[in-house]
Design a protein that fits this description.
about 170 residues, about 0% helix, two-stranded antiparallel sheet, Jelly Rolls, about 50% strand, globular
Length: about 170
């Protein structure tokens, strides 16, 4: 899904990417990878195509999940300018030991889900100390993302996670 709006001379663009996590309810511990597969070779990072040739700024990332439980639903979304490599194992493994890509890492956004309704939960994740401004001097590219659990979160089976970066740029 893509949506664009304008406010006070700035244009905002939202493009979503999602995945369905495995069919289990194994609890995450702080620092675990939240992904679509327990097999490293099958983990597919979130991805968003970027368009245009002007700089943009990611002000926040809206993270939604289909499960309404918000107990310990604390997450960090890591962004990369090339696909990160997930090695040895996938979902529910220690993020730091299975993800390689620090040279591709752009920054991260944290959020604690508090908005819970019958059809899921959501949060607007905010930057973790760095501002992501991307200047394109050529062809548009793709941003990639991986989710890390920041607390002992117990998911529902086949829970769907959707991440939507909100990008801002001058008109």
């Amino acid at each position: 899904m893509t949506a664009t709006s304008t406010l006070n001379g700035r244009q905002f663009r939202r493009v979503s990417s999602n995945f369905t996590r495995p069919n289990d309810t194994s609890a995450y511990t702080a620092g675990d990878l939240v992904a679509n597969s327990t097999t490293a070779a099958s983990v597919v990072p979130l991805s968003w195509a970027t368009t245009g040739s002007r700089p943009f700024y990611i002000s926040r990332i809206r993270l939604q999940k289909t499960g309404p439980i918000v107990t310990n639903a604390q997450f960090r979304i890591h962004l990369y300018d090339a696909a990160p490599v997930v090695s040895t194992t996938g979902d529910n493994a220690a993020f730091a030991s299975v993800v390689a890509g620090v040279a591709k890492w752009l920054g991260s956004f944290d959020g604690t889900m508090v908005a819970s309704q019958s059809d899921g939960a959501a949060v607007n994740c905010l930057p973790t100390g760095n501002f992501l401004r991307r200047d394109y001097i050529g062809d548009p590219g793709t941003l990639y993302g991986l989710i890390e659990a920041l607390a002992a979160y117990t998911p529902i089976a086949e829970e769907v996670f959707t991440a939507t970066p909100v990008t801002e740029f001058d008109q």
